[in-house]
Amino acid sequence: MTPWLLKAGGLAQVFAALLLLPTAAAQSENVATQQKQEGAKDSSKLMKTHFAKGNQAMQDAQAIRQHLQVAANDQKPALLAKMKAHYQAAITEYQQALQDTEVRDENGVRVVGLIGVIRNGLVSQEKAVDMLVQDKDLPVILSNLGMAYSGAEQYQEAITFLQQAVIVKPAAGTYSELATDLAQVGKTPEAETTCDKIPTVDATAKGLQAGCYKNIAIVLTNEGKVAETVGPLKKATQLNPQDALSWKLLGDALSNTITTKSERGEIVYVVPPGTVEAYQKYLQLQPNGSYAGQVKDALEALAQLAKHVSTPKDAKEKN
Asked: What tens digit of pLDDT does each residue of 70-88 get?
């Protein structure tokens, strides 16, 4: 009988061990869950800290940008260097905030950076978006990071992150910044298409879209491509007819498309319709504005041409 007793005792010990296994596993799982939660809290705190530092750096850069508008020429090089340093600091902080944002799929694959592409077939764009929208901080981080790169004049990097941001959460401000940066790298048609995507459900939204087109025009103007700004500026003035600067820029753009032709042995000027009206509209809105003097000179010059002016319609009829 002894062997049976010994065996029974052995079985009893085995059963006891088996009964203890679920409890031990549960405890281990609880510990792992707790550690994961604590890790997530730590990452969240770090993310918020880096995000706040990035925001402060952006504010410092913007303050210098405003100062540059009134600074003396000999002060500008130092201010520009300082401004770019702040933008670079913002980039570093936002990048760290992005790393501290842990968004993963069920296989533990990190989704950040996979938007818009399918990397190794691990996650689709739709899956990436579905997961990223779970974290409300991500669109803001991506957008701010893109704007920081833009401020540092690293436009291609800016476009990458801004495109990700608008996929996750379409926002008028992000679309506008993206359009401006696309114009900066010479992608004007894509820039205008991006402005087109801004919803115009109310007056504020229309103003943002108008500003988007105006920004494209300003980029092109700074590059000496004034004649190419006619299209964007016509859209800007139509959406926001109270923006005096857009009217002035439109007048400049149309003036740059004035041509000449020989008519009955005389040189006449072909002035695009709306040129004078654009300048007049600026003066109506800002009679004492910063560009009032330039606009008055332009109108006077156009008046001098009046005796030798042929509109495109007149030229067509005579031909």
From this structure: 899 999 999 999 999 999 9
Domain extent at residue 250 = 242-319
Whether 182 maps to a domain, the answer reads no
What φ, ψ does residue 261 adopt, rounded to 5°? -155, 160
Orientation angle between helical segments 203-222 and 230-239, nearest 10 degrees:
160
Task: Give the burial class of 49: count Cβ atoms within 10 A of its Cβ; 0-12 exposed, 13-18 middle, 19 or more buried.
Answer: middle
Q: What is the pLDDT of residues 107-142, one digit of tens each?
A: 444 445 444 443 444 445 566 556 555 567 788 888
**What's the total number of domains in the chain?**
1
Residue 276 located in a structural domain: yes
Specify the 3-state DSSP secondary structure of 270.
strand
Residue 102 DSSP SS3: coil
List pLDDT tens digits, range 233-242. Answer: 999 999 999 9
In the structure encoding, which two tokens stand for residue 250, read together?
């439109």
Whether 278 is covered by a domain: the verdict is: yes
- Secondary structure element (H or E) that encloses residue 21, with its range: helix 2-68
